[in-house]
């Protein structure tokens, strides 16, 4: 067998392997990034897939929405939108703000949500007394946000 024959066989094998690989790749989906969670989570509200309730604009400062009691824990210029996009959940106070912001939006936008707007605001202020209280309340808001539809 000559060298041209082996070379043509090698090219044919490479071509068939490439064709098989491209066909297999076309039949299975590639990696698709999606945000986890339902229609009530902080991730959902930060995605802006749905209009926010008029009572709480995205650019509203957290201090104006939740009251002056939040000045001790959060910057005065943090907006509701920023609070739903936070990734520092290991910080109890940041996690509380993230979940409370989503709970507040849900209280206005979702019928049957277990908290009213004033309850969300009151519970957030009350939970600012300690890291333990903040973490506990954040878990409760998170559970309500996850269970909501």
UniProtKB/TrEMBL annotation:
Q: Which superkingdom, per the lineage? A: Eukaryota
The UniProt keyword set, sorted, is:
Signal
Know the name of this protein? Uncharacterized protein
In the UniProt record, does the keyword Signal occur?
Answer: yes
Write down the species: Salix brachista
Supply the InterPro entries for this chain: Protodermal_1 (IPR039923)
Q: Span of the secretion signal?
A: 1-26
